[in-house]
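User: Thanks for the earlier help. One more: Transcriptional regulator. Can you show the sequence and predicted structure together?

Assistant: Of course, both are below.
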Amino acid sequence: MSVGSRIRRVRKFRDMTQKELGIALGYDEKSADVRITQYETGTRTPKIDVLNAMAEVLNVNILSLREPDTKLYAAEDIMSILFELDDEGGLNLFDVEDDSDPELPETRIGVVIKYRILQNFLKEWQLRKQELKDGLITKDEYTEWKINWPSSADENGKNTPNTTWKNNK
């Protein structure tokens, strides 16, 4: 996902107009929406200081706005990373039965990555997805958790997260 798409996604989640975001960033009222449109369409790329300011205005972790250092947009890129993990002895492949998508075969390939901290991150993500499925958290809370991760992480209830993401009901 491009930087512009990421900005648009979070801006809309925050229910802000392009003009409101631009003004909050200090742009002139007459051109505030134009500048944000340029960022969102990719005709301009925001500098890191602008992205930092945007993250602050939108109350998100900057990681949810910028592209990852390693782009994982192509299957070939993902495979390359998996090959590296395999070379380090940190990866296992196995068959898994999954009937969640009728377009795909029911037997799929599962990947186990032997990296403790990543497993902890994935376990918490799995918990959030299950809470969403079970109706324990809302879609907005789930999105809030993701766009503020890792400051929204609580190590599966062991700690208090640095960023509040869940509405107290």
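User: Great, one quick takeaway?

Assistant: Residues 115-169 form one domain.
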